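Hey, can you fold this one?
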Amino acid sequence: MAQIEFSRGVIEEVIPDVRLTRAKDGTNGTATFYFQNPSALANDSTTEITGMYLIDEEGELSTREVKAKFVNGQPEAIEAIYVMKSTQEWDRFMRFMNRYAEENGLGFNKS
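Sure. Predicted structure:
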């Protein structure tokens, strides 16, 4: 089990585009998630976005750095940034992403 939520208990069904950056020495990194037309922004959604929660069998990772993108006054996307400040946080995040990718059929492209 690996899932992403924007409100507690409400699983986001849209699979994000995820971009990773990491310092050369491995001490920190950043993951930028981009959700195009997420269900959290659907017109019939009544839940409040309180952050992004990455949940798996090890527990929960979270960030409050979540921004909605609007086009012509309509919500279109969510961008969330998760910052890792140690190699342990990076390793934990990668374990989550491996589980999430496996469950959702995602691949990894190195640029």
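The chain has one domain: 2-102. Let me know if you want another pass with a different chain boundary.
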